[in-house]
Amino acid sequence: MTFLSSPLRRIAAASAVACLGLGAGVAGAHAATVESALLQARAAAKAVESKREGLVESIDLANTVAGDAEAHLSEGAVSSAVDQLDSTVSAAEFTAAAHNVVLDPGDSEARPTFLAPAAEGFLLASAPEAQSVADVPSAGLALAVSELDRQVPTLDVASIEAIDASTGVVTATGDSVSQVIEDPDVQAVLDRQERDLTAVRAATEELQRTADALDAAAAEVTRVADEVSGATAVAAHVAALTSLDTQIGTADDDLASTFDALAAVGDHVTDPAVLEHAATARNVLKAALVSSADRGDVDSVRTLTDTIDAASTSLDEAMAAVRASHLAWVDAENTRIDAQNDQTMRDYEAAQAEAQAALTEQYRAAVAAHQNGWTGAPTGVTYANGRVPASQLCSISFAPGQMLQCDAAQALERADAAYMAETGQHLSFTDTYRSYASQVATRAAKPTTAAVPGTSNHGWGMAVDFDPASAAWMTAHGAEFGWVHPAWARSGGSKPESWHLEFVAPGVADAAATAAPELIPHVASALPDAA
Hints:
It comes from Demequina capsici. By secondary structure, this protein is mainly α. It contains 13 helices and six strands.
């Protein structure tokens, strides 16, 4: 065995120590580089989390803006902007999905913070990227060891563990980091399970690209949301102006219609105070209408619209009170009128009953004075018997085609009313006024009973030939209406005719008749029917 001399042994020992030192230094530097890269990855993850929250906030903003725009979707500009916003939000969600980002991770306040600010600043500042062994030039092992020691003086394992303990940063031996993107490779880096430097750097770059994409998507959503807000603001302004102009027009019409309504009502109300309230409400509305608004300021426009609307509402309420009070007056007035009319009719009916009693007595007196029937031409008739024109006669309502002297016809109508009340039927008869020619024909047919033409009371319109039942009733009750069954026509008379009765009280009905009173008509509301 060959032993080296002392100087050579010292050189060899030094070389061995240098090699051991170099190996330890390189290993330490590599560990520190990985730790630095892991910290950068976790910082990138924090950025992704921030950008994700920013995108969620932008989408929330978009939803709010779209909701505000809903009332104005009939406007083309608003509708187009909302459609674009919808597409932009969909694109942003697609971007998040393409990068495996979960957009709804829950309450942002409850999410874990990947890095405490102090630790992050300290570690990133004190952990520059170390060179690998391949990057060390062939200047000598001792120089390489010295350079590596200079670059990472604090990133030994003990230092990292100390920092982790003070800041709460999770190391490879701690708990896992909450998932930022649904990528197992990236999550392995964030959980400090992946120690390969290349893999750590790739994950960091992926996180940075994701953060940039989320940031750009959020910015685009915000930009389009701002466009929607702008279009909505314009549409809302136009709508506010339209509403104001419409409100002004309606209010002007209300002032005119309420003026007419109050004039029509006058003082016909049960409570005069409602008229004062209505007048006050009209003055308030007038004052609102002469107010002005800055038409370029939507808030000013809306304020004036609200003021006019409130004044119009107050006027509507005041007029509703006027209507109610007026209708109450109408009801009360009609109740008073009904009572007055009822009294008038009672007085009239009493007078009529008295007059009817007097009339009946006059009829009876006339019948008593003319038991043998009527003789001669009635008063006022200037035509010959059987030749009285129709214009001088009156028709009978319940016997079409039959005619009599007007007093006789009126008395027969009274008799028929009494007969109807008793029997439910009209009086029935065959002959009333008979013309001269008709009397000639009747005489020819009944030479023993018919009168000589020109002498019959049928020729004056003062006689009626009744059917048996009606003749019997008229014989019994006719005197109450001025009709008599002549003595010569009675049984045992010179010419018995049980059917023949004559009217013997001309002029009595005219003297006894009284006109019906004019009743007070109901009053109607002066206001049109409520819509």
